Amino acid sequence: MAATGTTSKAIAIPQRKERTPLGDAIEQLLKNRLAVASGLFIVLLILMASFANFFNAYAIQGFETTPHDPYAIQVLRDNNARPGSTSSSTKLEGFVYWLGADNLGRDLWTRTLYGARVSMAVAIVAATVSLIIGLVYGLVAGYFGGRIDDAMMRVVDFMYGLPILIVVILMQVFFKAWDRQEDTGVIFGFLLDMNQAMGGVLFVFIAMGALNWLGMARIARGQTLSIKQKEFVEAARSIGVSTPRIIFRQILPNVLGPCIVFETLQIPGYILTEAFLSFIGLGVDAPTPSWGIMINEAYQGLRSHPHALIPPAIALTVTVLAFNFLGDGLRDAFDPRLRE
Amino acid sequence: MFSKKFLAVSALAVLLVVIAACGGPPPTPQTITVVETVEVKVIETVEVVKEVEGETVTVIETVEVEKIVEVEKIVEVEVDSGNPDEDRVVLDTHIGSEPPTLDPSLATDTTSSFFIDQIFMGLTTFDDEANVVPALATDWEVSEDGLVWTFNMRDDVQWVHRDPSNGEISTVRPVTADDVKFGIMRTLNPDTASDYAYILYIMAGAEEYNTADPASDEFADFEAAVGVEVIDETTISITVKEPAAYFPSIVGQATTYAQPSEIIDLYGDNWTEAGNIVTNGPYTLRDWLHSAEIYIEKNPEWIMADDVQIEVFGGPIIQEASTAMAMYENNELDTMADPGWGPPLPDMDRIKADAQMSEELLIAPRLCTYYYGFVNTKPPFDDPVVRKAFAAAMDRQSLIEFVTKGDQVPAHSFAPPGIYGNVAADFSIGGFMVEASYDDQLAQAQEWIAEAGYPNGEGLDVVLMHNTSEAHAQIAQAVQAMWQEAFPDANIDIENQEWAVYLKTMQPDTDDSEKPNIYRLGWCADYPDANNWLNEVFNSKSSSNYARFNSPEYDALVEEAASVADPETRAELYRQAEQILIQDETAIAPIYYYTYVRLYKPWVSIVINPVGGDPVWQWTLDADAKASARGE
Predict the structure, then answer these.
(1) Which chain A residue has the Cα nearest residue B478?
(2) Is the dihedral of CA A288, A292, A296, A299 positive or negative?
(3) Does domain B124-156+176-257 have CATH number 3.90.1170.50?
(4) pLDDT digits over A43-86, tens only?
(5) What's the distance, CA A172 to chain centroid?
(6) What is the dotted CATH code of the domain comprising B362-595?
(7) Touching A: B residues 73-112, CB under 8 Å
(8) Which of A279, A323, B517, B540 has the fewest CB atoms inside 10 Å of its own CB, making it the most exposed?
(9) Given an 8 Å threshold on Cβ–Cβ distance, is A76 in contact with B399?
(10) Rounded to whole angstroms, how far apart are CA atoms B423 and B415?
């Protein structure tokens, strides 16, 4: 009897897989083909951008470019070369411009690839900065509540009133002027060196991250307000767990999901802002390529050389779409109401 | 997504511009609906009470009377399309940027100067071979010591005013010698703050007056000491500091143009607005809608008005060369030329390959030099060897052939061919910048940079700055790549600033820490004499000396050249000055001598002066050909 009873129980329990919210979400996400394809595309893009030294047209076709950066290699004679044409330079004999060359004779495949670096770096850095600031701010405001919450959220309300793009532009103008000062001190000197190494966009990243955490803070606060009422938080508090530990070990894991979803949907905005700043000449410094700069250069000659516009425009469009699809997929995956 | 948005925006901009540009292109009558009040006769029936006298009987009679009443009626009327340019010869052009001013004393840029030269006239002007010819002056003579110039003026040039309410152009009064004196004195007055006042420093007392403190007690004395004297209504004499053979070309400069004192007193800074301004040139200002459009109209009272064929000239302000190019190809614009954009660089290949457009392309020498200046006081460019290395490591020929594409000429001197005193034929000066083989030039540059202590450019961290413009950006990137090729370990950054900010950054008195190491600039002749180049730009006292080049020996040479009359001596002095500026010190790296690169529709025939610019009044336009091309 006892044995039979045990057996039936034993059959009933292991049949059901152990389910966690995260596991459910991943399972749900994997069912969304568009989101999976977008995710794969983004991973591939990040890999190719990170290893652009190996994936640029010169490296693949076996041409040595050192000590110059491949994206800056210019053969003036090959200006506006059509896709598939061969270089006329003796140093680059037999080199094929797969996607053509721009108006200074620079390979478009290589420049688009290096342009992805800037876009991906913006996506990752700005998203991380804004996620961290916004999360911590929202958690603290939501958890303590009362006057602290009021004061902190009024600051957010105030900052919402700032025209973010204009502030970013002003900061960029300021930092560019500052860059020319000779005596800048150790910390700023280091930042400026970093900035130079990144083609002059470090401050764009920082400015965008530093101004875009407001929405994140509101979401994190809202989630915290509801989660802090839950029994497990009460329990933790009653056995004397320290406040930071409650916030970061008990509450944070539970608000992280919606916040990541929110941030993923912000990324296309960052990429477009960077492209826009570069388009109007406030982004990366030439000759570092960025999709915005490439589009700016190409559209001037649109009537004569339309081929130069295609690679950066498609890259930008597809990347932005991919982040949007992935964000949508994540949102659906984390939404329990949409679960079967 | 992003690009689409931008295309849509620019398409919208084009559309708006087109709408703004067309003053109603097909002159067909239009029908519009208006509500009109008309008087109508109506017959009304009224009851009249008649009392017959003497009787107590009251009769009520019904009679019909005629009455006039006012009724509102909707009618359709045919109206003229309202295009004032119908049946007039109109040249449709575009303007590249809003001219900062139309005040002859204040203009420094080419757009402003273009319009000023159409609506005002100087004592002298230049013909199409850059010779000084009479304009407002009929003739002039100089005293034996070469110090006093006396100009006899025409008495039949009128100030005209266009009444914006009815478009009528009427004469105000004749232009007199007092107006010329007023113009010169106004330019020199420190309160006017003219950037080009220094051009007049050759006049006795001019520099002292221009640099005097307006609040000081002696200010009136400085003013009285300026050597400009009105002899009678049509004679003016000007005393100069030292004999200057080029002086007649100075009085062809906008800074010396006659100005109407009563209008300037009346309107102050707004005297150049359409409706306020009075002018004395072949054209007068019709419309100046700021940041939108400018039109000038033929002055029928001008001395040679009978020879002026084009009656209206102007168009919208278009910020993008590519937008203007699209309109040009669509026959909406007659020119891709000053005061607007030339053909955009990316389209040059297509224009040259196109059977029709290659015919429309005009390439002609122009008295301008495009150069990169080094801030001579800022390391590492305080070392002439570094400057020489950078100047040598530029493949000017490739740059012209594959980037600028306008048949420009590689430059190795500051003053271009055509300027009196130029050394463009002497390759002992700056020859190292234009070697037959670029590889030799490159090897020399690398040798110099190593000699200066920066082998392979190691340790060099320089900023190249240009004013914001797609064409300058292209050249800067091409040159940067050449430098990077020559000095692989150097760090060379490119930055750009808007024109107004850029000029402020580059002022000689701006602190070096705010300046880049290398800057870009072009210089165009105000008059075809090396004095305008070597003395007025790189004299250590010049406000245009953005390179902060300071050589007492050089200053002495150019100042001496300004004061001697003998042409051969002057030429030799200018040769020595160029030798110092370019060969010995290499304060700047000349890149190319400009050409005019322009497109004109086949129905426009033009005259270009290498110095004076574009005398639109001498142009002609075949209105029938234009109309048929536009399908009207």
Answers:
(1) A104
(2) positive
(3) no
(4) 999 999 999 989 999 999 988 887 788 898 889 999 999 999 99
(5) 19
(6) 3.10.105.10
(7) none
(8) B540
(9) yes
(10) 7
Q: Report yes or no: B357 at the A interface, CB cutoff 8 Å.
A: no
Distance between CA B122 and CA B200 in Å, rounded? 14
Quote the minimal CA–CA distance from A104 to chain B in Å: 7
A281:B401 CB<8 A: no
Interface of A with B in 308-327 (CB under 8 A): 309, 313, 316-317, 320-321
What is the DSSP code (8-state) at residue B522? E
Phi first, then psi: give them for residue A259, nearest 5 degrees: -70, -40
Instruction: State the burial class of residue B61 (Cβ atoms within 10 Å of its Cβ: 0-12, 13-18, 19+).
Output: exposed
Give the CA-trace dihedral at A54, A58, A64, A69, to 10 degrees: -80
Residue B245 burial (CB < 10 Å; 0-12/13-18/19+)? middle
Tell me the average pLDDT of chain B. Answer: 87
A237 contacts A303 by C-beta, under 8 angstroms: no
**Using the beta-carbon criterion (under 8 Å), do B484 and A68 form an inter-chain contact?**
yes
Structure confidence at residue B5 (pLDDT): 38
Taking CB atoms and an 8 Å limit, are B322 and A320 in contact across chains?
A: no
Q: Which residue of chain B comes nearest to A184, CA vs CA?
A: B513
CA distance B513 to chain A (A): 5
Cross-chain Cβ contact A301/B347 below 8 Å:
yes
Q: DSSP assignment of A198-223, as one string?
A: TTS-HHHHHHHHHHS-HHHHHHHHHH
3-state SS class at B170: strand
Assessment of whether the complete model's pTM goes beyond 0.90: no
Nearest to A268 by CA among A211, A325, A313: A325
- Token pair, residue A157, equals 């309300």
Whether omega before B339 lies within 30 degrees of 0, making that bond cis, reads: yes
Size of interface A-B (CB pairs under 8 A): 114
ipTM of the complex, rounded to two decimals? 0.79
The answer to whether the Cβ–Cβ distance between B463 and A295 falls below 8 Å is no
| Distance in Å, alpha carbon of A103 to nearest chain B alpha carbon | 7
Outline where A228-309 has alpha helix (H). 231-238, 243-245, 252-279, 291-300
Q: Which residues of B45-56 are buried (b: 16+ CB within 10 A; e: fewer)?
A: eeeeeeeeeeee
pLDDT per residue as tens digits for the range B257-289: 999 999 999 999 999 999 999 999 999 999 999
The packing angle between helices A108-144 and A291-300, to 10°, is 130
Q: Check residue A248 and report its DSSP letter.
A: I
Tell whether B599 is within 8 A of chain A (Cβ): no
Nearest one of B195, B186, B202, B212 to B241, comparing CA atoms? B202
Q: What is the SS3 string spanning A38-53?
A: HHHHHHHHHHHHHCHH
User: Helix, strand, coil shares of chain A as percentages rounded to 5?
Assistant: 70, 0, 25
Please choose, from the candidates A56, A188, A163, A179, the residue with its C-alpha nearest in 3D space to the C-alpha of residue A111. Answer: A56
A 78-117 residues with CB below 8 A of B?
A: 79-80, 103-105
Average of pLDDT values for B90-105? 92
Contact A100, A298 (CB under 8 A): no
B252 with B123: CB under 8 angstroms?
Answer: yes
Measured between alpha carbons, how far is A71 from A79 in angstroms, rounded to an integer?
14
Q: Nearest chain A residue to B329 by CA: give it.
A: A303
In this complex, do A303 and B513 lie within 8 Å of one another by their Cβ atoms? no
Distance from CA of B101 to the nearest CA of A (A): 26
Determine the residue of chain B that is closest to A301 in CA distance.
B346
Upstream peptide bond of A289 is cis (omega within 30 degrees of 0): no
| In chain B, where the domains are located | 30-79, 124-156+176-257, 362-595
Q: How far is A76 from chain B, CA to nearest CA, in Å? A: 6
CA distance A190 to chain B (A): 15
